[in-house]
Write a structure and sequence with these properties.
Layout (H helix, E strand, L loop, with lengths): L8 E2 L8 E6 L5 E5 L2 E5 L1 H7 L1 H8 L8 E2 L4 E4 L3 H13 L10 H14 L3 H14 L4 H10 L16 H11 L5 H9 L3 H6 L1 E2 L15 E2 L3 H26 L15 H19 L10 H10 L6 E2 L4 E2 L5 H25 L8 H4 L1
Parallel strand pairs: 2-4, 3-6
Antiparallel strand pairs: 1-5, 3-4, 7-8, 9-10
Helix pairs in contact: 1-2, 3-4, 4-5, 7-8, 8-10, 10-11, 10-13, 11-12, 12-13
Amino acid sequence: MDCDNPCSPHGGALPKALIRSDIWFADGNIVLIADSAAFKVHHGQLERHSEVFRDLFSVPQPIDQSLIDGCPSVELHDRPTDLYYLLIALYDGIYFQKHTAADFVAISAVLRLSTKYFIEHLRERCIARLAIDWPTSLPEWDRREHDGTDSEGRYNPREIFPHPLLMLQLAYELNLDTFLPGAFYDLSRYGPSKILTGTRGPPPIFFTEGEPEGQLVRLSDDHLCATFLGREAAQLYIHSFLESALRDRPSTNCANVGKLSAVHCIESFYFIHLNVLRSVGGIACGRDADPLHTLLQAAEMLERTDFSDGVKTCGLRMCSVCKSEFTDAVKKARLEVWELIPEWFGLREPRSVEDIN
């Protein structure tokens, strides 16, 4: 980026020095100006993809207009970084070979301006990419969570997915309400102090755009309250699940009913109960407001063989009937959680990705 190279006008003085961007084609025929950044491009390329640009360039310009590098100029009321990524997408396309959190700066910029300038193919591409990070179905959410877990079982989503506050900010700005439930749920899994503190957005490309370390993003009071209420509801759900799904276990269908071996099912459910309580309290791994994860862990305990009986490692000695019944109860509960998330955070039913498009 040629941040120290002001553009020199040909035929008149500019009211302010411009920063010449590295999107500067020698054969370009129009200069776009956003704030103090200038981009020399081809108006035909922009008109080809956007009727808004076509109408904009058809407006007659003053005869005595000052030229920049021999070209007329048009001033746009957009963020320079946003315009930079939009132009890159129009000339080179927008591709995501390996999904990372760093993709979000380009996605948000291109989505913001492709919406404004009615460039539908770029808008659809960005929405499809956001749907990977913020799924609207439980199977896709489970895939997302798996992608955010490394080979050693450590959950490290911020390397792959952007901070949920950034998604919430974009969703409210562009009315992308279908992504709000997932973003609120993801945010609610942080501790209260981190939720309150906020996060920094990506640093701008041009130094004139404000804080070089990125804008501080925080929730409004209303959204902060909604996040905490949703967080409480998520924790309360697990307590309710323990009452409804584990209180009367083993059931009368237990294969060990009336036998001495019934103690194995009783002890197994007691062990599950204790471990679920540890998750609710944040003792297990810090994900104390994540019922989808807690329930999945509870079901996975049925197949684990790394528990200890004080002598050797072993699995839970539960009968097949109890395992099947508990597995079904967990599956039903996780589906219920997914359906309740919009209600927990005070949201209306989200639309599908297709409805947005």
